[in-house]
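Checklist before submission:
- one chain only
- standard amino acids only
- sequence pasted in full

Submission:
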Amino acid sequence: MLTSLLPGFRHFRTPFALGVLIAFQVWILIGEYVPSRSEAQGFIDRVYALGSVAGSAAVTAAISFLLYLVGDIVRLSSNQMMGILSRLKLPQVAPHRFATLSAQSKAALFEFASTAFKVRKDTASDDDFRKLRDEIVLEFTEIRMGLIANHLDVYLEHDRFDAEADFRLNVGFYSTSLWPILAWCWTPWALLGILASVVLFGNGLRALRDANEILVQAIVSGIASSRVYIDESERDFPRPSGSVTIAPRARRR
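Returned file contents:
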């Protein structure tokens, strides 16, 4: 039961944490302008009255749902996050720190991509190998779906690292605005918290590399198959349309 609940909790955690983080920043900025129960009038007074009627548990549930909804709206995927970093030219400044694949994963996937040409005894350059490797990387989402159907244990291990990366990348990204707000409303020393956001973001990138490492090893070891790799290795030997492969029946003893 815990195995089935954990993936759901991981995907709930990031949107809820982002909603809390954003709500906290908004509260710091405009919290003093929100009237108290005795001062409330109009709509705000009706909100307080609804809380009295529904009870604290219902109000807590409603607020939690709203925080989750806000967090899910602003949450960025790892691809969107890397797109923002690319526009900021950060990967060009420190390519190893902002890479989504480790050096070992790149080397393993490069060697694997080269075998697609060696099967056909085709003379290809390193640029061809890199191009095929990059195409396989773009196929990671499709490969993940294949692991769910065929190798759930491998997918769950990948999902654990991917959820950690999602949480740390998003919280690290959205918490960068918290420290200037605290510095403006409280003390300039709060700007030192930006270092914590940077470290958290870096840990998210490390977790993303670990998640992709599992996908790379699954591809290289044959646990998962790459469509573009198969197409490239069989490019000179196209399969006839409508062909069916019949496996021989096992003999009865």
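Reviewer check: Confidence is low (pLDDT under 50) at residues 241-253.
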